[in-house]
Amino acid sequence: MTPPRALVTGAAGFIGSHVCRHLLDAGFQVVGLDDLSGGYRDHVPAEVEFIEGSINDGKLVAGLFERHGFDAVYHLAAYAAEGLSHFIRGFNYTNNLLGSVTLINASVNHRVKLFVFASSIAVYGRNQLPMHEDLVPSPEDPYGVAKYAVELDLKAAHEMFGLNYVIFRPHNVYGEHQNLGDSYRNVIGIFMNQIMKGQPLSMFGDGSQSRAFSYIDDVAPVMAQAWNKPEAWNRVFNVGADRPYQVRALAEVIGKEFSVQPVINFLPERNEVKDAYCSHEKVRSFFPGLREPVTLEEGIHRMGSWARKVGARTGSRFAGIEISRNLPPSWAALAVE
């Protein structure tokens, strides 16, 4: 029997590299596509056929579908800097919306059986707690708008062409393979990188904003299971941790892991959702047997052990800020003209 074939976009990135591993363990033949703008080639499992390229390259994408005849697409490629998306609107929509449409078109044309999409709880906006799948999305930033637009497009493609999909809304995911050098997103990676460099931790506002930080092993395995759960097809699921922590409490947990008392550099408050945490009853009902989420302390220990091995990293500054008005000063200092 021929094993199913899957395309994983963002395969060299954080969540994508883990999903590749779980798909391989499940018996898939996996092709990985990534432009290496935020990922690392050595994160891709050796058994994956890796292609360096962009989801916006329509000719490349069409050729991959023609050559491989994918059964499933796991679309995990995105520039997930939610706060920065206000200031890079064109880049955000080109990469996170139009690139997704390129993949959806190819999936329809080549009769892909299942399209799995990594959306985000950014679609919910603010003041909808706990966030659950029956709420009407109300995104407040271009990143969330793009994610929700792709969700709607997948629903339309299913109704018009029969393209099956599963949408996951992960949130604040952290763990091994996260890009430690990215200064615009992933607060846990930013804090660990700053500690390893002997720098103070950059914290917007007073750190009272709260998030439910989700360890990668509570997210990637569930996404990989979607192929074998047809009863979950054409549905939307939150996935991740249950318990929210304030950012200043997070800093203490990370400091303890690295045996330091963190020094905080308090930055001006930025316009962001104050509190964000989700209900996960739905995903547990469709994916029975899910274990209890990894505790924040254990997840930080696992990621910290990996981070100390790879060491601090210096990421590239974002080139192409489109709007400088109201750009946080700490980000403006990183901008490339």
3D architecture notes:
The strands form four sheets. A seven-stranded parallel beta sheet has the order 3-2-1-4-5-6-11, sandwiched between helices. Strands 12-9-14 form a three-stranded mixed beta sheet. 34% of the residues lie in helices and 16% in strands. It has helices at residues 14-25, 58-68, 89-109, 142-161, 187-196, 220-224, 247-257, 281-286, 296-310, 329-332, and strands at residues 5-9, 29-34, 49-52, 72-75, 114-118, 165-170, 173-174, 201-204, 210-211, 214-215, 235-239, 245-246, 264-267, 275-276. The longest helix has 21 residues, at 89-109. The termini are far apart. The model has no long low-confidence stretch (mean pLDDT 95). Helix 1 (14-25) links the parallel strand 1 and strand 2. The chain is globular, with a radius of gyration of 19 Å. Helix 5 (187-196) packs across helix 9 and helix 7 crosses helix 9. The protein has ten helices and 14 strands. The protein is an alpha/beta fold and 337 residues long.
> Cα distance, first to last residue?
54 Å
Oligomer: single chain
Q: Determine the strand fraction and express it as a percent band.
A: 15-25%
- What is the N-to-C order of secondary-structure elements (H for helix, E for strand)? EHEEHEHEHEEHEEEHEEHEEHHH
Please outline the major beta sheet: 7 strands, parallel
Structural class: alpha/beta
Number of H/I helices: 10
**Strand line-up across the major sheet:** 3-2-1-4-5-6-11
Q: Nearest-angstrom radius of gyration?
A: 19 Å
Number of strands: 14
**Looking at the structure, what is the overall shape?**
globular
Spans of at least 5 consecutive residues whose pLDDT stays below 50 are none
- Percent range of helical residues: 25-40%
Mean pLDDT: 95
